[in-house]
Design goal:
With 148 residues, this protein is α/β, with parallel strands linked by helices. The chain has one domain (3-146): 3-Layer(aba) Sandwich (Rossmann fold). It is built from four helices and six strands; from the N terminus they run βαββαβαββα. Strand 4 (84-91), helix 3 and strand 5 form a beta-alpha-beta unit.
Length: 148
């Protein structure tokens, strides 16, 4: 059984809720899942994963969440060749060009690890609603297919 690991950061609960939706759908797809808050793990958390997922919010003017900074920096030193990754982010469109910037930054960081992007980046404004849940389910389905 393939193993998916989710690392998330959440200030208001929106990103945590999103990570829970992703976790539930991964389990529905028949995958084993581990989900951890980012301050509880290092990037080597992904070492035995088949699918590596980051769920993050964006702070201020496109800034990474403080609690994700070390994880983000250390991630580029990981060799995740042969693994699949996906990134989902929450944000507020009032920030314009900085909307979900941290999520976009994580895609770039994962690209430096040798991992293959298994699903398109998902950006959700604030908390996940019906249409967002559909996007997240498609995101998970794409990730699951990439490891079959």
């Amino acid at each position: 059984m393939a193993l998916a690991k989710i690392v998330y950061a959440s200030m208001t609960g929106n990103t945590e809720e999103m990570s829970e939706i992703i976790e539930e759908k991964l389990e529905d797809e028949g995958l084993e899942v581990e989900r951890e808050e980012c301050s509880d793990v290092d990037p080597d958390f992904f070492e035995d994963a088949d699918i590596c997922i980051v769920a993050t919010y964006t702070y201020g003017d496109g800034d990474l969440p403080f609690e994700f900074e070390d994880f983000f920096e250390d991630l580029k030193g990981e060799d995740l060749s042969g693994k699949v990754f996906g990134v989902a982010g929450t944000g507020d469109k009032e920030y314009g060009e900085f909307y979900c910037q941290s999520a976009r930054d994580f895609v770039e960081q994962f690209n430096q690890t040798g991992a293959k992007q298994g699903a398109q980046l998902v950006c959700i404004e604030n908390n996940p609603e019906d249409e967002d849940i559909d996007l997240l389910q498609t995101f998970v389905e794409e990730l699951a297919k990439s490891v079959e």
